[in-house]
UniProtKB/TrEMBL annotation:
Pfam families: Ion_trans (PF00520), LSDAT_euk (PF18139), TRPM2 (PF25508)
GO molecular function, one term: ligand-gated calcium channel activity
Keyword terms of this UniProt record: Calcium, Calcium channel, Calcium transport, Cell membrane, Ion channel, Ion transport, Membrane, Transmembrane, Transmembrane helix, Transport
Membrane topology: Multi-pass membrane protein
Natural source organism: Sparus aurata (Gilthead sea bream)
Ranges where the TRPM-like domain occurs: 434-667
Domain TRPM SLOG: 110-328
Subcellular location(s) of the protein: Cell membrane
Transport recorded as keyword: yes
Protein's recorded name: Transient receptor potential cation channel, subfamily M, member 2
Coiled coil feature spans: none
Regions crossing the membrane: 688-711, 718-738, 750-767, 787-804, 810-833, 853-870, 941-970, 1107-1128
InterPro entries to which the protein is assigned, alphabetical: Ion_trans_dom, NUDIX_hydrolase-like_dom_sf, TRPM, TRPM-like, TRPM_SLOG
Length: 1324
């Protein structure tokens, strides 16, 4: 046995070590089961009886066969009798693993048999670490009726829907009894309905804590090594007094105390487990709520104990029995809840069961119900009205929020606790209705933690709600650490991987400067860094999973928007974009960043999402610019070219071009700006003929118009360059055809000079970089332009041809090459049509068709080569002339496509004189293989069939395919050619805008001037404001403010369009009528109607009382240990009629409450229950039994008749833990001062309160009386010096504290402070 246990431990140790060593690797299921089994055997035990007492059934409830061999004693054994504590022991559990219920859907779960003494921490580890459950944000404990429980159909539907909705939206665990009876069965069915209706959502966790000894068919769950799975059969009809497990629960903890057939064994362990889970923290403390349906006296005790532990309870009215009793009296004051009333309600709702209840229990239950009603902050009654089904999920969450409001006495900020819960549950509807009400006003700083939590937790609706309710982004992101924390907590994404790989070693410190570098890479090198290096070191360790920031943000909206964009978070980015100042630049920058990330990423799905989001922000930019252009065209154009200080001092137009946002550039406003730049200072309404006439006959121009303005217009430059290019081609043609001499003629020399000017212009274009791209980026852009490629090719061919032409040997070859170069120059002529609105789009279509043609020729070449090689091999034998081989294998098959059919493939067309027998004649092809009769020997039928097949596929199939491809390309491109042409028009306009005014060859003079000015004289380049304009700060601020107004109009119009669309109405109607439990869909319509364009909203603050306090408690006598307690054993009452109940209810409810708590503090003594109606000494009461529990030599009977509590009975006699019988006098001294000095010369003394205090230590014969005194001091008083010294010497135990309702004090002290605040006319 020892060796086996040692081996088991060894296996477990090795398994755990392997798991730790390979956390990032996928483990096989068998290895995982082995590890899990080893952990369970080491940490989880069961209980079993080790002594079988001679009988048919042992006192533990199990038969003889169910005991281990050592528990069965010999027949003549006459030793000790069975004892629970000595004869039930703990051994490693033998029932754990997976459970399969079979049937429809093959429902499976996980289970474990555990001892009643198992540590809750072990069970929590089992649930989270071994069963891989995520820690809950909420714990829902469902309790109530177990047997003969019937739930009305309407209430059942509402309960199912609400329970699952709250569990789904908050990530809650549901804990029940786990059996297929009563309320547990309804919870299971709710889980089942959810699983059937929503297969995409996460699993609802329903944990059943049941007693092992009452489970029917539990033998199927037993196996020493665990069952994976155990096949469990639900035999409802044959279960008898036992119960079957519910097949809809997901996890089971089967509590074993070593007995069989005893219900309720699991209650204590379940209570400890719930308390343990509630003590855990996953961001915030996990709250617990108790949901009650039906139930009997045991359920009442559960409710009472839960509420004493500050656990809120939700009672479902209409579910029956004790739930209905509490629901009936929930609206009554405690004084009206009498014993008689409880008798009536018990009889009404319990029926025949009521007859078995003794009067003493009714009295106890009355007292408990009164205490439950007094704790109204913890009690929520859910009622279904006739016209509204209500929402159980809202009732559950409201109960938790209502309970958190009253936790201020524990020192917890009420509103903060409520907001923590709402954020953890992701229930913005609850926060909106229960927390952010019209009466509430918030400081921005008070909500910064919530904003950070919502951003990190990806809760965009909460982010929007917080912005609407006072969060100022500038204050929130004022500190660098906040932005650092956001990047540190950013979820794993492609940008995060890029940021980590940007460093040489993983784990190297990353700052915001590194983030800026990556963003600059995504935006383009022409932008300036968004974050400059900071003098303050603010770094953190960065691995592949986290990032950082290190610079004070310049604009909080931009910083938040950039943080959301790089992680491809659409919802958060949308909210942040609404807060951006330069929103149009932000949208275009987002489009560029997302498209660049999509191009560099490897995940196709993520890349597609990024492209969709990029298009979304392009639409945003279009919408804002359209609003701007419709409002003020001049301002809109200024927006396009102003250098944005928030986005690296680049322009909206440049960002749109980099992002390839063709739709944005194609807008009429952008094209109007480009047309204005194209025309320069000329009117855009001038027809072309008028401009050309003025170019030639410039004296016709008005004298007031400068010639420089005319000839510096890009339009005029373009026309002159066209004329110059035609002249160049004419000169080139003349030289090639007429004047190409051995030595270059004057015309040819002019051609060389002309070409030199073209070369200089191309060099100037390559190095001209007004946007600051850098040579590498500029070169890449230059090569990517097709026309530039033709320019370079033509120049290279011309230089090579010129070099060959100047030699004697290769003179003719040089001319041939120059002739080919002329063709390239002519093709370059097509670029002049790109400016034309009619022909420009057609050039784009031609380009696309050329791409199609290239891929078609690749496909066609397969057939050409296949037929040509086969034909050549059949006809010709061993021809070694390469030119004739290529002619026969490639050229002739290609000509066949155009109708030039060969004559040598059939006998009738064969001519011996047309070929060479041995292939010796270079001008004739080689003859085909001949037979003896000097006729072709090849099979004619085969060559003809091959030709027919070739013509069928090449001429008919492939050519028609090419036509179809061209047609498809034309139809596809035709719709976008105008947009593409407008986009490409920018580069042509910018080229001619920067081009010198003189056309070639005179342009070489301009190049010489530019070289001397920029290189020799080193003067700065001339700044051009047409494409990039630097504005003054005041002008910039005014322009961005106007843009923000236009953005608000755009968002408002967009929301109006959405609300008015028929599709939106259908969606809203479906959401309102659908009984689905998906919270996200049900809450969208209400939330989207809200506007959230808060930018720099002012926060409103309450003016609080500026009174500070120090509290001293002075006791006349110190507390003594417990010496004597007497309590009542029974009270007898007379029958009361409804009339008596009415008269009793009319009495004032001024009874002490704390003094009648069931459990007396500092002892295990329980008070006798004293309902309100029995508190006055005048109420009739008789003592049947009095038990003395102390050895005090005082006659308590005599004391009781002389010294009585002035407020009535408490349920216990004697002095308890108080120091004396009768009144125990206390004095509370409260020192106050003003925050700001007031003209008070002397301290003021006030008596605030004097009298009886409702203290939990009070008894029938001893009670506490307190006098509260207030000394109000002036800040300049000499006494303040002594008090300050006393506070310093107290080392923090004595502090000045603001008078506020949030002070951490007892209820009595809080009431005293409230009276003091009223005394000084200050709000508490």
């Amino acid at each position: 046995m020892g060796e086996a246990e040692g081996d088991s431990r060894l296996v477990h140790t090795l398994a755990l070590s392997a798991v730790k060593a390979s956390k990032h690797f996928s483990l096989s299921p068998s290895f995982q089961r082995c590890t899990f089994a080893a952990w369970v055997r080491e940490n989880v035990n069961k209980r079993e009886c080790c002594f079988f007492e001679k009988a048919d059934v042992c006192k533990c409830g199990y038969s003889k066969t169910d005991h281990v061999d050592e528990a069965i004693k010999p027949e003549d054994f006459t030793g000790e009798s069975w004892d629970r504590h000595r004869h039930i022991r703990e051994v490693p559990t033998d029932a754990f693993g997976d459970i399969s219920f079979g049937g429809l859907g093959q429902k499976t779960g996980q289970y474990a048999r555990v001892s009643t003494d198992t540590s809750p921490e072990i069970l929590y580890q089992l649930l989270t670490d071994q069963w891989k459950l995520s820690p809950p944000n909420l714990l829902i404990s469902v309790t109530g009726g177990a047997k003969n429980f019937y739930l009305k159909a309407r209430l059942k539907t509402v309960f199912h829907r609400g329970l699952i909705k709250v569990a789904q939206t908050t990530g809650a665990w549901i804990i029940t009894g786990g059996t297929h009876t009563g309320v547990m069965k309804h919870v299971g069915r709710a889980v089942r309905d959810y699983a059937l209706s929503s297969s995409t959502q996460g699993q609802i966790v329903a944990i059943g804590v049941a007693t092992w000894g009452i489970i029917h068919n539990r033998d199927a769950l037993v196996h020493p090594e665990g069952c994976f799975p155990a096949h469990y059969v639900m035999d409802i009809e044959g279960q008898g007094r036992l119960s079957c497990l519910d097949n809809n629960h997901t996890h089971f903890l089967l509590v074993d105390d070593g007995t069989q057939g005893q219900y309720g064994v699991e209650i204590e362990l379940r209570s400890r487990l719930e308390k343990c889970i509630a003590g855990k923290q996953s961001g915030v403390t996990i709250p617990v709520v108790c949901v009650v349906l039906d139930g009997g006296p045991g359920t009442l005790n559960t409710i009472y104990n839960a509420m004493l532990n500050s656990t809120p309870c939700v009672i479902l009215e209409g579910s029956g029995r004790i739930a209905d009793v509490i629901a009936q009296v929930a609206g009554l004051p405690p004084g009206r809840i009498t014993i008689a009333l409880i008798h009536q309600l018990m009889k009404k709702f319990f029926g025949e069961e009521y007859e078995r209840f003794p009067d003493l229990k009714i009295i106890e239950w009355t007292k408990k119900i009164q205490d439950i009603i007094r704790m109204s902050q913890l009690l929520t009654v859910f009622r279904i009205s006739d016209d509204d089904q209500g929402d159980v999920d809202v009732a559950i969450l409201q109960a938790l929020l209502k309970a958190s409001r009253t936790s201020e006495s524990l020192g917890i900020d009420c509103w903060k606790r409520q907001l923590e819960l709402a954020i953890a549950w992701n229930r913005v509807d609850i926060a909106e209705t229960e927390i952010f009400t019209e009466e509430s006003h918030w400081k921005s700083s008070d909500l910064h933690w919530a904003m950070l939590s919502a951003l990190v937790g990806n809760k965009p609706q909460f982010v929007r709600l917080l912005l609407e309710n006072g969060v100022n982004l500038r204050d929130f992101l004022q500190e660098e650490e906040t932005l650092c924390e956001l990047y540190k907590e950013m979820p794993g994404c492609f940008f995060l991987g890029k940021l980590a790989k940007s460093r040489n070693h993983s784990g190297e410190l990353i700052t915001m400067t590194h983030v800026s570098g990556e963003v600059r890479h995504l935006l383009g090198s022409f932008t300036q860094p968004l974050y400059l290096p900071s003098t303050t070191i603010n770094q953190f360790n960065m691995s592949i999973e986290d990032s950082s920031s290190s610079v004070t943000p310049r604009d909080p909206g931009r910083d938040l928007f950039l943080w959301a964009i790089v992680q491809n978070n659409k919802e958060l980015a949308e909210i942040a974009w609404e807060q951006c100042r330069d929103c149009m630049s932000a949208a275009l920058a987002a489009s560029q960043i997302l498209k660049k990330l999509a191009a560099e990423g490897s995940d196709a799905d993520e890349a597609e999402e990024m492209k969709e989001l990029a298009n979304h922000y392009e639409k945003h930019a279009i919408g804002v610019f359209s609003q701007c252009h419709n409002s003020d065209e001049d301002r809109a154009r200024k927006l396009l070219v102003h250098a944005s200080p928030l986005w690296g001092r680049t322009t909206c137009l440049r960002l749109a071009l980099e992002a390839d946002d063709k739709s944005f550039v194609a807008q009429s406003g952008v094209q109007a700006l480009l047309t204005q730049i194209w025309c320069g200072e000329l009117s855009v309404d001038n027809p072309v003929w008028r401009v050309m006439v003025c170019m030639v006959f410039f004296p016709l121009i008005y004298t007031s118009f400068l010639l420089v303005s005319l000839y510096s217009s890009p339009q005029v430059k373009f026309f002159w360059n066209i004329v110059s290019y035609f002249a160049f081609l004419f000169l080139f043609a003349v030289v090639l055809m007429i004047d190409f001499q051995d030595l270059p003629s004057p015309l040819e020399l002019l051609l060389y000079i002309w070409l030199l000017s073209l070369v200089c212009e191309e060099v100037r274009q390559l190095f001209h970089d007004p946007d600051g791209f850098g040579f590498r980026k500029k070169s890449k852009m230059y090569i990517n332009d097709l026309w530039n490629i033709l320019d370079v090719l033509s120049i290279i061919l011309f230089i090579i041809g010129l070099a060959l032409r100047l030699t004697t040997v290769l003179f003719y070859a040089g001319k041939v090459l120059l002739c080919i170069d002329f063709v390239v120059f002519c093709l370059r002529l097509m670029a002049i049509f790109t400016i034309s609105k009619t022909l420009g789009p057609k050039i784009i279509i031609v380009k696309r068709m050329m791409m199609d043609m290239f891929f078609f020729m690749f496909l066609l070449s397969i057939w050409v080569v296949a037929y040509g090689v086969a034909k050549q091999g059949i006809l010709i034998h061993n021809d070694n002339r390469l030119d004739w081989i290529l002619r026969g294998a490639v050229y002739e098959p290609y000509l066949i496509i155009f109708g030039d059919f060969p004559q040598n493939i059939e006998y009738s067309g064969f001519d011996l004189n047309s070929c060479s027998m041995n292939g010796t004649d270079p001008l004739k092809p080689k003859c085909p293989v001949l037979n003896e009769s000097q006729t072709p020997a090849f099979p004619e039928w085969l060559t003809i069939i091959m030709l027919c097949v070739y013509l069928l596929f090449a001429n008919i199939l492939l050519l028609n395919l090419l036509i179809a491809i061209f047609n498809f390309t034309f139809q596809e491109v035709q719709d976008n050619t105008d947009r593409i042409w407008k986009f490409q028009r920018y580069e042509l306009i910018k080229e001619y805008h920067s081009r010198p005014a003189a056309p070639p060859p005179f342009i070489i003079l301009s190049h010489l001037y530019i070289f001397i000015r920029n290189v020799v004289l080193c003067r700065p380049p001339i700044v051009c404001k047409e494409f990039k304009n630097e504005l003054l700060e005041s002008e910039e601020e005014e322009l961005l403010s106007w843009e923000a107004l236009m953005k608000d109009r755009y968002l408002q119009s967009t929301q109006q369009e959405q609300s008015q669309s028929m599709e939106r109405r259908i969606l809203d109607t479906a959401q309102n009528q659908s009984p689905a439990v998906d919270y996200g869909q049900s809450e969208i319509s209400g939330f989207c109607s809200k506007r959230s364009t808060v930018t720099e909203s002012a926060t409103i603050f309450f003016i609080r009382s500026h009174i500070f306090i120090i509290i001293f408690q002075i006791f006349h006598m110190s507390l003594l240990p417990l010496v004597c307690l007497h309590f009542y054993s029974a009270l007898t009452t007379t029958d009361e009629s409804p009339d008596t109940y009415v008269s009793t209810s009319e009495k004032e409810d001024g009874f002490h409450v704390n003094a009648r708590q069931f459990h007396y503090p500092g002892s295990k003594v329980t008070r006798f229950p004293v309902p309100d109606e029995k508190v006055p000494w005048e109420a009739s009461i008789s003592l049947s039994v009095t038990r003395d529990v102390c050895k005090m030599s005082v006659c308590l009977m005599c004391v009781s008749s002389v010294i009585r509590n002035p407020q009535g009975r408490t349920g216990i006699r004697g002095r308890g833990t108080l120091s004396r019988l009768g009144p125990n006098l206390h004095v509370d001294l409260v020192l106050t001062r003003w925050v700001v000095s007031c003209p008070l010369s002397l301290p003021s003394l006030f008596q605030v309160f004097e009298g009886y205090v409702d203290d939990c230590r009070n008894t029938d014969n001893a009670w506490v009386e307190t006098t509260v005194l207030n000394i109000h001091l002036d800040r300049s008083s000499p006494l303040m010096v002594d008090i300050s010294n006393m506070a310093v010497s107290a080392y923090g135990s004595l502090l000045w504290q603001e008078v506020s309702g949030r002070a951490r004090l007892s209820s009595n002290q809080r009431e005293s402070l409230r009276q003091i605040a009223e005394l000084h006319n200050r709000k508490f």
